Give the backbone structure.
Amino acid sequence: MTEEKTYSQMRKEFQEAFFKKISPGLSKYESERLRQFGYTRAVKIAALIIILVLVFLTKQIDIGLILFICCIAGAVCFGLKKKFENEIKQKIMPYVCKCLGDLKWKYAQCSFEQLLCKSGIIDRYNRVSYDDSFTGIYKDINYEICETSFYYKTVRIAVQEQYLRV
């Protein structure tokens, strides 16, 4: 049978791990955080410059093109942020999980996604995104906790009718 920890034990172990292992490890990432901040700032400035150049060269404002450029810049910034976030998680989550008992962290797909769909708990979806996943044993029972978002997105096409006056 697995050892059960009290709240005060977990808190004490977490404080020890934080000050001895997590905090010193995070200070190593400060320069990387500032570099990532610089990259995202550069992407945003580049997008703004591209938009301004296009407006001045074409002498017109194309909202669709501006939105497209902003979406691309946003996706790049989000990707950079998520990559850096996962690097940090890979460094600190093993220490955090160790404080909480028999718990393991991973960034991956959950094993019971199809079971949720077959059971009817989740009706239908056409897009899914995963973040954190925890597995462990509590009182000799295996469990899995997943941070998962299921989406069902429909596409609606608006048809605009035009009338001609004669």
In short: The helical segments are 7-27, 30-58, 63-99, 113-119. Residues 130 and 148 are 5 Å apart (CA to CA). The first strand starts at residue 103 and ends at 107.
